[in-house]
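Lay summary. Proteins are chains of building blocks that fold into shapes, and those shapes determine what they do. In this project we predict the shape from the chain. Here is one chain we studied, written as its sequence of building blocks.
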Amino acid sequence: MSLPPPLPASLPAGGEDHRLHPWSWLFVLLMQLRHYFLPLVALLVFGQRGDRDPMWAQLVPLSAIAVLVLVSVLQYLSYRYRIGSDAITVRSGLLARNRREIPFARIHNVEVRQNPLHRLFGVAELRLESAGGARPEAEMRVLKLDQALALERLVRQRGHAPQAADTHATTDTADAGDGQVLLRLSSWEVVRMGLLSNRGWTLVVAAIGVLFQIVPRSLMDDALQRGGREAFGYASHLHPGVAGAFALLAGALLLGWLVLRALSVVLTLLRYHGFILAEQAGRLTVSAGLLSRTRSSVARRRIQAWTLSEGTLHRWFGLRQLRIDSAAGGPSREEDRALRELAPLAPAPRCEQLVQQLLPHLHWPPAHWQAVPQHGRWRLCVGALVLVPALAAAGYWRWGGWGLIVLAWLPVALWVARQQMERIGWYLDAHYVAVRGGWWNRWWRWAELDKVQGLRLQRSPLDRLLGTSSLQLDTAGAHGDVALTLSYLPQAQAQQVMDQLASALARRKLRW
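And here is the predicted shape, written in a compact code that computers can read:
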């Protein structure tokens, strides 16, 4: 029986309980203040209205802050962790005591995070995630940076349990440094990613939502009306005419578009600057971030499904995105949780090369995709087929013949549905199953048969009318944007494929 690797010198001795970094309570306090920031501001701003004593109005938020400080210190004093030979033990809680045993072999994702304040203090936050958990199994706020990185390496070493089913895995690299670099994005590539994304809208919508929550409705309406009147008055004073008005409108739209592009570039740089995908000891590690640096890793054997996608702009520039689903992170869609993106945006040949390098036993892309029957393509635009005639009838009643112009959308919807149906396809062999779809935004999704843990045959009323079925395949941690579903197959073929897959899965061992 082989002995576990020894503890690195930077980690505390095993078999004993240890506390977090002495400044841990400060970071917990800052996290709590961030969550309660808006209520505290509301207490300070609106608590002084009326006949209340200003001293009492300020005492309430100050008391709340004092309670948060006390809770943060108590959390630090009650938090203990111990590094064993095959597991990490975490104890927490003051009144209600909790103890969690986290085996190294069960840890699916390790995340090391550093924001600017972490860098100032030379510390980092460590998160350990297991399969299907809605929350991390352990959040260590905070450890010394060298201890966090050493603990990440320890999890990688002790959690790498060789399995006979993984004979197709590539040879592990040396345990020094960050391993083999598979993908590195330059600053220009990150900027290009920002120019082709719409992340600026996220910030704008969030800012508008905060304004409507904080600013009273009457003040907001007043400001909008006053701003509209001033803008209209300024435009009227210029006497631009019809052509000038259109030029001003086009200039305003162009300025808004440029501002959104600039915001998208800034947000993308903050998140993806210095993006590096590396492989070491059977684990994939992604490091990225400008101000807040995040380092997240997942074992290759924990990957449940793969997704390639490309938008229209991406396709024009020959770019694609490669994402994975693992059993860690649960159903949460937060982007800062378990490792999701292996290539946020990279040239299409580079994404294909990554897939072939990480899955050498799979033949990707498939040489031949199985098509689906085309006679039911109208089902993809059934909403338009119902809504457009209703809108046309209402328009004809209101505006006469001009109201029927909306019927022009029907041939467009049918043409789009035809293009989408022609793109739908599936592939199945002895090792994996794959599906593809989309036309405007295209995607490809696949999983190894060893990761499939459930089959489900679905028939909607339209399926019964057209004699078709859809076969959905479930994998652990399947939280992708698209489902792994063989859609719109003839009923007999869907039943045959399901029986074939059920027979194959019964002879295979689930690997996750």
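What the prediction tells us: Residues 161-177, 331-337 have pLDDT under 50 and may be disordered.
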